[in-house]
From TrEMBL:
Keywords: One-carbon metabolism, Pyridoxal phosphate, Transferase. Belongs to the SHMT family. CDD domains: SHMT (cd00378). NCBIfam families: PRK00011.1. It catalyses: (6R)-5,10-methylene-5,6,7,8-tetrahydrofolate + glycine + H2O = (6S)-5,6,7,8-tetrahydrofolate + L-serine. This is Serine hydroxymethyltransferase. Residues 15-415 form the Serine hydroxymethyltransferase-like domain. It comes from Aromia moschata. GO terms for biological process: glycine biosynthetic process from serine; tetrahydrofolate interconversion. The keyword Transferase applies. Its EC number is 2.1.2.1.
Amino acid sequence: MSGDILKTLNANLWDADPELWELIKKEKGRQVNGLEMIASENFTTLPVLQCLSSCLHNKYSEGLPGQRLFSVVLRGNEYIDQVEILAQKRSLEAFNLDPEKWGVNVQPYSGSPANLAVYTGVVEPHGRIMGLDLPDGGHLTHGFFTPTKKISATSIFFESMPYKVNPETGLIDYDKLLYSARVFRPKIIIAGVSCYSRALDYKRFREICDEVGAYLFSDMAHISGLVAAGVTPSPFEYSDIVSTTTHKSLRGPRAGVIFFRKGVRSVNAKGEKTLYDLESRINQAVFPGLQGGPHNNTIAAIATAMKATKTPEFVSYAKQIVANAARLSDGLLSKGYKVVTGGTEVHMLLLDLRSVGLTGAKGEYILEEIQIACNKNTVPGDKSALNPSGIRLGTPALTTRGLVEKDIDQVVEFIDRGLKLAKEISAKSGPKLTEFKKAVHENEEFAKKVAALRDEVVKFSNAFPLPGYPEY
Ligand SMILES: Cc1ncc(COP(=O)(O)O)c(C=O)c1O
């Protein structure tokens, strides 16, 4: 009897659920056959995938290591505690942090819950936060709202005021940020971006925070792999709190991590010290404030991903991400495209398609049709966030597959040919996206050209291996 039960429970997915298995295999095929240029995506490693599907998934462990006793005393956490402590230690080591000065919480389920936990812990309800506006390159969780609607919970439960980039240069306008911060007096200023191709000036952020008495909270979600490898400026020297996702350039599992300062925050003229109280505020905001049981399989995967950042291979990988992005930018510029801010210092760039008479939606659509994944994005000066004029292109995932500069030159060719084709189609279809999409598929001449280019991209992509399980 027990043998029969095990037989059922241990059936392979392909036997237990062929319908779902087919879908997973199709997604794997899509990943292998295309060029993944969504700047926030990556292909994680086999050890990370192995942790994610391990027995650690089965265990409840509400609370922190050694204190798993919030609602009931949770037994059986002796190994889970060690896994979480290892993840904490390695997270601090990955960014060369002194455990006397920094603590870390590795339990947030992802980047958005991590950010909400920071505000929940540090800012009172309807307290004030300032982040880069979403259309200017910030993230939803930096307080996004529109003129008619509060979109993110971070603008529903907190009062947010955005700061902006200069519409001419595309660079963050730090002077205007200071001006607004003096008026708004936020509790937190967020230094973090989802679409910005330049290194942030953390020192300047610190000075502004000091002037208005705000905490500096850096959200390094996109760039944390580059920070760990030391190929972009680190936010830690100047920040009070740092959050990150672990699945972007860091190449770990889909999760979030929060780092917070410990020890002395300031000393007054009389020599009296004020201590940071971020540790308990943030830990309690994560659990029990916002989350329940931590995802221990993911925490193990964080541990192994953080360990990997210390290897020479990871450092070369991060350097190559940046070199590939620079090559991509140079290649597109040499073909006459406009890159916002004139280039990139990180893992991504923002291509302004106004100069070639295309919308971001058409650019995104044609590239998707030829198996190049990217996303449309507003560019500085766009009138409507609903009709963005740019596309965001990133190199972390391609670099994981082993592409180097000469391969990026070929990618530039594909993008250029795709966008030229889009112009040709758009000239015939007119401005509407629906008509454009129809022409891509229903005009025989265009459909043939798109298919031919897609075949070339698929053939090219197939030459580059993907980490993980071969079939899924
Ligand atoms: C800067 C930044 N912060 C936070 C997040 C949110 O992460 P998640 O999608 O894991 O919730 C993102 C996601 O793209 C991001 O770019």
